[in-house]
Amino acid sequence: MSVETEDKHKKIFLVEDNKADIRLIQEALKNSTVPHEVVTVRDGMEAMAYLRQEGEYANASRPDLILLDLNLPKKDGREVLAEIKSDPTLKRIPVVVLTTSRNEDDIFHSYDLHVNCYITKSRNLSQLFQIVKGIEEFWLSTATLPSE
């Protein structure tokens, strides 16, 4: 990995259908010390089209981190996670499930599918900001991410 790669903007791919959560997550990342770009899609079909660079996403660049909600329209997050982690070209992209589900089956199933981290969203605004800040600090500042 070159030094140039270290300085590039990090791309966060947010897969979330709830408009309010999208706004809150974007707001929480606003004061980030890490240069980044947030790309958002609102359903599982669109997420996979983006990641596979299909259709309108033919020129999409690979994200450095995926924040994935489980409860999505068209194709749910569990299916998206399974497809990402079974695809040789996508499986190394870190995936953080960020969801309201506290269901143990969802937690176990996500880890069985090799999710990198499972985080339950808080409905408390300051706690949600803390969670997103923690994700940013660990995944974008501390962790070494694969370049491809």
Automatic annotation (TrEMBL):
The keyword Thylakoid does not apply. It comes from the Bacteria. Gene3D superfamilies: 3.40.50.2300. It comes from Tolypothrix tenuis PCC 7101. The keyword Acetylation does not apply. GO terms for biological process: phosphorelay signal transduction system. SUPFAM superfamilies: CheY-like. Residues 11-136 form the Response regulatory domain. Keywords: Phosphoprotein. The modification 4-aspartylphosphate is found at D69. PANTHER family: RESPONSE REGULATOR RCP1, RESPONSE REGULATOR RCP1-RELATED. This is Two-component system, regulatory protein.
